[in-house]
Specification:
493 residues, alpha+beta, OB fold (Dihydrolipoamide Acetyltransferase, E2P), BirA Bifunctional Protein, domain 2, 8-stranded mixed β-sheet, 35% helix, 24% strand, elongated
Amino acid sequence: MKMNDQMRARLQKMHNLERTGVYPFGHRFKRTHLAKPLHDEYDGLSKDQVIKLDKHVVIGGRMVAKRGSGKVGFADIQDRTGRIQVYIRRDVVGRNNFAFYKHADLGDDFGFDGVMMKTDTGELTVRVTKIHFLDKALRPLPDKYHGLKNKAQRYRQRYLDLISNRDSFDRFEKRTKIIKAVKSYLDNKLNMTEVETPILNTAPSGANARPFVTHHNAMDLDMYLRIALELPLKRLIVGGMERVYEMGRVFRNEGMDPDHNPEFTELETYVQYYDMYDDMDEIEGIFKAAANAVTDNGIVNYQGHKIDMNKPFRRLHMVDAIKDVTGVDFWPKMSLDHAKALAKEHGVEVKPFFGVGNIINQFFEDKVKAHIKQPTFIYGHPSAISPLAKRNLKDPRFTQRFEFYILGTEYGNAYSELNNPFTQLAAFEKQAKEKEEGNAGAESIDYDYVKALQYGLPPTGGIGIGMDRLVMLLTNAKSIRDVLLFPTMRPDE
């Protein structure tokens, strides 16, 4: 371990503590109060009112500021709820205890017994009667005026980010509230059952994505980290569980950008007898519950944009959305050559394996989605890109599928589930052919899932929501790395 002068000085202080009989790395300590509840209770009272109450407390936390001289001192103590000031006098705590404080470094962890008071300037303070040394910090904290400016360091050393950046700390507190609110909505409003399904699978399925591959030594078998939760959950619907959901990590071996991390948290739900329109109602309820958990009025401000979660969410067919923005009308049936000509005319990329449905979707991706601002369901995706969705009976070119967009970003994907085993096998086979032709993200054939369908999958609606993107939206975070405690990073050499 490389050491600078500050670390050497702190190490010497650690040895000094040991020589005086104080263990520098602490034992169990019981607090009676946290910082924020004390501020909530006493900030509105006068100095005399606080003194009259004679409130005894035991607090604990990290020392993040220190000031004073001679025989008295002040320090700011930070716990998970915030900061509170302590006032320490040598004639009250004793010479030895005061020496612990006097020689303490920022970052050291202390416990304090004391009585609530207010200073002449009105600062709520704990007048300390006893000091407990709990932990010695051997490395200095980031400078309080500059903090962690290097984003990579913030992500690699999240613990320092949480100590020095209260906005970051609060964002992760909000993440927990959002997840709890979503689960509460599913548990209590929709009466769903939360389940767990395998992370390791023998075939990648449930999404168009490149998987991570690993190897199981005992079975001498290549396995895949799951890219979606879908197919195991639908097997549970076959088994009669009727209403299930899972919120868990999925893994995709693809690029990284502000919206993508190789591992992320996905929510998927499946409800027997639901269709696409029930799924829309469900997602609208989920997003409103999440927004109400972290806002006072359901209004979300994201990167300068005001998003109103109170209004009914818009519903728009993909073909109509394309026509509204570009003037191109894909409702009339057309040949592949005609569709390619329209793509060329409007500067839309066409890959070798594209059919008409792929071109329609690419039109939407390239020309339309960036124009969507307020919460909008885009439905009617082409069958060519939706192998697991039920076809539209009146126009089988399109499916009973939608994606949910806000500010040009997709936040959810859902459809009336395909439950015809013959159609499903044919869709899998088409995807497998696309993979042979160069589409690395196309699905593999899951024969066991086809077998499950042969036992009967009742009409079912299913949704998928990227929870990290939802948290980004509701906490005004520009990058997915800002809402993942430990985002994927290249090793720091």
